[in-house]
Protein 1
Amino acid sequence: MAQPTMDDVARVAGVSRALVSLVMREASNVSDRRRQAVLEAAAELGYRPNILARNLASRRTMTLGVMINDLHNPFFAEAVDGIQARADEAGYQLLLATERTGRSGQTDAIETFLRFRVDGLILTGPRLPTPEIRAAADTCPIVLLGRTLRIPEVDTVNTDERIGARLAVRHLFDLGHREIAHIDGGRGAGGPPRRAGYERAMRELGLDDAIRIVEGNFTEEGGVRGADQLLTGGTAPTAIFAANDLTAVGALDRAEDLGLDVPGDLSIMGYDNTAMAAMHHMSLTTIDQPREEMGRIAVDLLLERLDDDRTAAIRHVATPSLVTRSSTGPPPDPRQLQSDP
Amino acid sequence: MAQPTMDDVARVAGVSRALVSLVMREASNVSDRRRQAVLEAAAELGYRPNILARNLASRRTMTLGVMINDLHNPFFAEAVDGIQARADEAGYQLLLATERTGRSGQTDAIETFLRFRVDGLILTGPRLPTPEIRAAADTCPIVLLGRTLRIPEVDTVNTDERIGARLAVRHLFDLGHREIAHIDGGRGAGGPPRRAGYERAMRELGLDDAIRIVEGNFTEEGGVRGADQLLTGGTAPTAIFAANDLTAVGALDRAEDLGLDVPGDLSIMGYDNTAMAAMHHMSLTTIDQPREEMGRIAVDLLLERLDDDRTAAIRHVATPSLVTRSSTGPPPDPRQLQSDP
DNA sequence: CCAAGGCAATAGAGCGCTCTAATCGATTCG
DNA sequence: CGAATCGATTAGAGCGCTCTATTGCCTTGG
């Protein structure tokens, strides 16, 4: 199991270790003859460069750390797709970890990454406290994806959640809805701005009095509870704007259990345009975020700090868009609405 | 940005580098006085061990490579949860990658892992050719999860897919179904054994003549097509056993589009018990695999090879179980069935 | 014909850590 | 009281690579 080293290759090829190193790094000024000799020797021995040694010596790891908030949330999986693609192109490796990696509590994920001397860090929707992020930021460049943070040391990539929320409200308004309620995302990343966007959009439309928010938590169960609250007590809204797709699915469940037809009796909107929303069986109207693109941009921002040594923070804000499916439609006939008290 | 090294800490603490090393590795025979001095110096300087140097010197990385077949498939996410948990306990780090990591085509994921000198490798549901896996296996221990491979160098962790398939068929049989069709998984990992299990179970029940298989591919779309084939041409089955949950969802869609009530007119079963199946709105009867446990076991197998230097291959086969939800029920009244010619 | 220049190849000093063997006091014991 | 013992500490040789400076060698031009 003892693996061959560069010295072994050098010996077999009859050259110096330095020359082998040059060949491995694909340096330009090596004669074809020697290069061949080295490559053949390497192949013969089954030589495999030791990345650790290389990184130690070069003080560059060509590796980016990616912290995934939640492996189960398709939003992150798709953002990682973009990160992966761009990192590949740029010749960077990825180290993935979930927020709870590392020996339970002792060493958190960020610390682990820094010990590995990653060249840069992408944190997707991290729940981490600001001081911790700031502390890490003076060791290596950091990009936040899906969370805002106004400190100069880190770049951020987001969509404008308020615009997204407004798109949702407008869509429902245009269909004729006036009683539009919101099941929010609590304090989770994206929750507050989506809620704020909802409120603002309602006011813009003169629907101040119809503003109605119940608490959610970005889970299906939260959607079930929120919908229950909205639909069983007093006057029910004609449309529900949920903070994310999962919440919308929960609301959908509850609505159907209550015998309501969606979108006949009630329109429901999600947010994120996850694969789930696209499933024919769900067919959720929702707000799309260009996740892959956001992932790519996050890598680009890192590379700019790394290669072009930019130091000013950049806040990239992508534009969300409406995806219309079949969970929304015109509100029911007003007569039916009133006949319920 | 120049990070402090062990020598810096040693200087500040007034001890040798070797002693700092001992403290960092939590060695036992260091006096409390010195230990304190070292820890204080380290804290003061903001010292952070360089894992690369450590790994290089110790020839152990305490890192396991995990190749994830598909980041979007919840099955793998949950298996990784188990792997993560167990690795944490054992003090191992995880390096995750998807099968298509690495500079496009040049260096595949496995090679990358080996260059990083991971101590062990877990491949979840890999589509990789056998020779490649075998080649990697003589460099470091390998465990396959969710795929069988009968070569002595690698351990495997699976569920007995045939038993799982039989559970599904029996469940439907017990409900009264006789016309039970199968939408298979093609050549994807798990596809063939599930199909074989279906066939065998049908025979055991004397339903040889009712065996009916259409092709699928583990996707929703495959489910839609498969269901279409089964439900629109000639005599329709009363129950469909789909190769996985996604396929089942597709079948569900198609069935509902055709105006069939599930489970009133048609029962549908999935496989995997993904979070999707559990969603209230879907509520799919399905076969559960203990994914987290499988993940933990995979790590254990690796550790046995690493620490107890076991060399004989182990094939762990977990037991699948039936999860009954509301997509299955008794077949419709026979009279209705016949009235369709 | 010789100095200057250019290119290919190499020597050798690290990178920051681990780990074996050696050292050094302080005890213990015959 | 000197030898043996033992725990705490240290010296120093790597781990496998990169990278700067340097060495040769060959071409070129004056």
Protein 2
Amino acid sequence: MATTAERPLRRDAERNRQRILDTAGLLFAERGLGVSLDEIARHAGVGVGTVYRRFPDKEQLIDALFEHRLAEILAAATDSLEMSDPWEALVSFLERSMELQVKDRGLKELLLGTSTAHARIEQGRQQIQPIVVALLGRAQTAGVVRDDINVPDLMLLQHAIGEAAEYTREVAPEAWRRVMSIALDGLRPDRRRPSPMPVPPLDEEQVVCSMREWGLRRRR
Amino acid sequence: MATTAERPLRRDAERNRQRILDTAGLLFAERGLGVSLDEIARHAGVGVGTVYRRFPDKEQLIDALFEHRLAEILAAATDSLEMSDPWEALVSFLERSMELQVKDRGLKELLLGTSTAHARIEQGRQQIQPIVVALLGRAQTAGVVRDDINVPDLMLLQHAIGEAAEYTREVAPEAWRRVMSIALDGLRPDRRRPSPMPVPPLDEEQVVCSMREWGLRRRR
DNA sequence: ACACAACCGGAGTCCTGGCCTCCACTTGGA
DNA sequence: TCCAAGTGGAGGCCAGGACTCCGGTTGTGT
């Protein structure tokens, strides 16, 4: 108690705090939660000390940073729930959620990773869960989604598609939509024809590039 | 020239060499290519020096180790090509290939990763490629696979499913088959009903466990 | 049985990279 | 003006991987 807003930061300090938050957001988004605080400091044009003074540990930085990101996914879920077509509703949520995760690698790691040690994130997840249950349930009772799948299947699917996105992110950042399209077609109980592909397929060269990029992204 | 089998190793040396190869195989399979030679030495019950004497660098160890693994995939491909039903042929290859990759994480990394610096692996890949083209082509002209997908799409799918497998590997090592089943249903140009799921879905607890495992597998 | 080249283990060096502390210097603002 | 608040970044600490070296051991040809 009496810890928050003890007293306003000096103006330069506040400015630095914001800079750190901003760059951390960027770096986490494009390289995942693994980036070091030193690196964030360097990119923010600020000393390491400054970072550590403001955020005693990485957890706090992450929590501060991802709260509203989580809220975005929650919003996507509730928005979708309001759509009248049960299939469109589910698809719209899955799509929006994937878009957010593709744009922000850190968010994805937070969503999929260890639950402990991020109370707020855990709480966010638990707000989202029932909505997903509702979305899936509605689609299934409407008969537009096969009923032998459950929510964990959707999670797995999201994770899988997310990795495909990761693989091609440098070369064809939208290619994951093809994978998703295939998966969505696979969720239907029956259908006459494939849904049209949202983006063109990868060509030979893009594959080679993706392989190279991916290879050296995991240091070796 | 005159380098191979210069002279047979002393018997104990040969025994150690084999031990190193064996344990390296195991460790690469379950933890990926990232494991250090020191660790391999420790698990093999052998000094680090012995490892480095026998395999001047990791590349050579890896090449020696994965040549026949690659051959297995190639065999899966050619075997499948001989099957009469074009759909069954494609499915059988994809399934076998995934099984191998799930069993051996190192193999997967090699298949998907950097092409350079592993000439033999690259060559193996190039033997497999045309067979996959044939498998897919045959299925498409037979009208059992939608024709707006190409080989890179299959790669992406494999990568994606592989990650789902990675995610649940400790808790439900067969769960990836559900994802694959959905994806396969998504590949058909049309169908009346979903194919039956090969394994039961994850329950709540398994999801939580997977999240935890996955979280701490990427150190943090 | 003996000698010795081949082989062994693993302590030790070097290096990279993360986390975090400390303190001499700057600066905002009462 | 003055000083508490704030700053930067050198440097300590530690983990862990790659690789070397050498005193000691062992297989083997004779």
Protein 3
Amino acid sequence: MTSSLTPSPFSEHDHKKCVREALDTAEHICVIRGVQLTPIRHKVLELIWESHKAIKAYDLLDRIKPLMDAAKPATIYRALDFLIEQGLIHRVESLNAFVGCRCSAHQHEQLLLICNRCHDVEERPATKVMRALAQEIEQAGFIVHRKAIEIHGICAKCEAQAGNPN
Amino acid sequence: MTSSLTPSPFSEHDHKKCVREALDTAEHICVIRGVQLTPIRHKVLELIWESHKAIKAYDLLDRIKPLMDAAKPATIYRALDFLIEQGLIHRVESLNAFVGCRCSAHQHEQLLLICNRCHDVEERPATKVMRALAQEIEQAGFIVHRKAIEIHGICAKCEAQAGNPN
DNA sequence: CAATCATATGTAATATTATAACATTCTCTT
DNA sequence: AAGAGAATGTTATAATATTACATATGATTG
């Protein structure tokens, strides 16, 4: 019973489970690391996980204001800083926006496939790419701190719909 | 006779030649394509090529104002839009800044190595990475419009200096 | 217990980055 | 000379992000 109204590479999945898992993992990681997933941070993470689209800081602010009247830009940006530090979300550089990270416990740096149609962001570990990348960087004598690999285009789901729009 | 005061992967090269080539290529490409590299656009490109560091739009604005009193943000952003469209510069998404592109005639999408110390940006075609990437994206059934591959860290030059600071 | 320290949050102001909308000019073509 | 298209001028404002300082909260320890 999947609606085709909101095309998405994720439209088939059980999103509640998806979110629950993400939040459980986040809570677990924070306990292990002895860092505080405070109510604000938890709420921001939850809001980010409402969809697989990247969400902007001020949209998060709008969403959180009804719940926390005191919320200001700094409130959001501080929570985002924390979540990024802990590898619980990605900052999508090419969108100035933020998306949940499923890879928390494992490697954080992944390839992001960003659909220009449905706006969902898909993470891919892309081990072969990462291996080639490591080699290239090594050859350049470069020492990596951070990687941002962002591909914009049309996801499989949207493409299928475009070709077959029923 | 290379100064070690401004460490850079490019510090050994003849930068004047580098710029001249870039501008010549740009002029040539624009003629071929029948698009106008107007004085404003040319000046912006020249300013961007003053170094291999990514430069911010408002820094460009500050640099161009003494020459063109009328310059406003839109002046700069329009020139930048044109230069990006023509593949003459890269927008560095993770810096909100702009850097000259040496690959104009060839493929435009390259890997960017961004040094956090000297701030120089090095382009690399990285064909193996690109090949692996194409394969990965193909597997995902994704159709690429645009790639941004940005690696932050310390370049070889700066690393050498750090280890051997004479 | 009081003192202090570190962490997190509240709050206001402001800095930085980018776009929208509409007017004007310039250049080419007819 | 008229008209079309491209480029630029100009003003205003939107969107994104940070700084600085005040306050609170909770743990640690003298």
Protein 4
Amino acid sequence: MRTLIHQVLQREEPLDEVQVAGWVRTRRDSKTFSFLELNDGSCMQNIQIIADSDLDSYGDVEKLSTGASAEITGKLVPSQGKNQKWELLATEVRLLGACPDDYPLQKKGHSREFLRSIAHLRPRTNLFSAVFRVRSRLAYAVHQFFQERGFIYVHTPIITGSDCEGAGEMFRVTTLDPHAMKPQKDENDFFGTPTYLTVSGQLEGETFACALSNIYTFGPTFRAENSNTSRHASEFWMIEPEMAFCDLQADMQLAEDMVQYLIKDTLTHCEADLKFFNQFVDKGLLERLQHVIDNEFKRLPYTEAVEALINSKQKFEYPVEYGLNLQSEHERYLTEVHFKTPVTVCDYPKEIKPFYMRRNDDDKTVAAMDLLVPGIGELVGGSQREERIDVLEGNMAQHDLSMEDYGWYHDLRKYGSVPHAGFGLGFERLIMFVTGVSNIRDVIAFPRTPGSAGF
RNA sequence: UCCUGCAUAGCUCAGCGGUAGAGCGGGUGGCUGUUAACCACUAGGUCGUAGGUUCGAAUCCUACUGCAGGAGCCA
């Protein structure tokens, strides 16, 4: 019976017999024995194995090159060496899969670009195994956060007929012949109507919030935008809570609580991995994360954000002026330089926000909010939704949205309308923030970006 | 989509008009309770592709392709 290396290395007492299995990181031969470093991905550390040349199975040891897989049984004893507490004195070594010398992963560092080209092997590196352990823990913590607060997990559709206006270009889902010379009618398509991969589950999520009160979605979303940046991917995961009987203040509070909760959870449960990131990826990471959980987030209206930017006398490439969207450089200045802490900006001019956001009493702004964090920029975008049927109808007319397409959304206001609010949080951006990894392609197992969908 | 930069050995890079280099990795041998082990030897390249300038191009010019960083869009 095999034991995970993670569990073996946590032992307080020696063991007469234990079996581990994994992939060889390196082998160092001595005259009468070999040192093996074995890793099984259960934790950052390798287990050091001493394989004596007297072993019946020493023939297998000599075939254990970097990358080979093996199953090793032995005695766990305190190590004579300096760099590890325990080592395994092998009694039996069994080669499972040999690894030819064209194995692309070396003991030395590789560039991220090269590792992306071997995305099927990169989880075997320290960096990527750590990223994906943290990703797994964060996903678990997301569910824990919402479940502890009585939120219901709703699975909104991946294939959708609605286009969640304003959220970006969509991928068409169709069974029509792409090589057909003649135009084909949508009625002949699989669903009898044009369908797409979802860009957001928000509108569907609202229908469930207006029945189950507090809900959240957590799943893949798709954008066909031709975005070529380190923060955008064509397929990414999004967390979208939606709360009935809720205003923007409570919405912002939930977003801020959630970010702090998730960071605390990761600091507690992924300590070794975060230390690794702090040492090799981003030297200021632990300090920054600690700062985020120890301090309240700065909260201010868009109008004050614009004033702060103008008063800063900072030179920006793009102009700062009431009524214009905040650019990346503005957002990053606010969170990285001006306040040096996560910042939630709210109450944006209605002209620059989508139709479903709730009009404020000033008739100029809407109850929208963006949560900005250092190094990433926008992590969360959310709003209180327009629950007044007449105002929503006006907005729909202004945006040329038909009752045919949005009738069901309009119905939520027609039948027992309630104030409600929610937000979307990009899961990969959260992982980037927590790990310090600066490219979204390195926190997704097999990233999809324009012109690239390998594996 | 725009702007900028890069493309040389399996990997990371140097060379920047005059006979293609290093480190790591691989192979062989040695040494050692080692730990990104160490020492010696060795194999390995149409210098991204296609044109052009030149006596001569990895090196200069043009186009294309790919990649990266930034911008826009957003999460």
